[in-house]
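Why does residue order matter? Because the sequence determines the fold. Keep that principle in mind as you read this record.
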Amino acid sequence: MNDRLAAQRQQHGVSAGSPAYLTGNKYTIADLCCFSWVNWAEWAGVATKPFPEVQVWLEAIQKRPAVDKGVNVPDKFEMKEAMKTKEGEEDYAKHHSNWVMKGQEEEQGKHK
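Structure:
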């Protein structure tokens, strides 16, 4: 993805520090779809900082008002803040693991 964004930057003459996008020189559904995965990369143990093109792209999309509004549904998106400390990371993982397990147990109860 970093290489793709770098190629798009070069092809469309996008200046350093400004985001290149995955297709053409504009934000499209391709960016939105990939953003959903990349935005959760830290939680999966994948750092985005070693990929400068991805980092600029990610930060630009995160700043979009509609994206900011959308990631906070149904609850405020707190993963990025929690991942800044080991304790926050562990608490966040525990909370969401419990949430998933509870949902699975509820579903199992419906199918007996």
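The first helix runs from residue 2 to 12.
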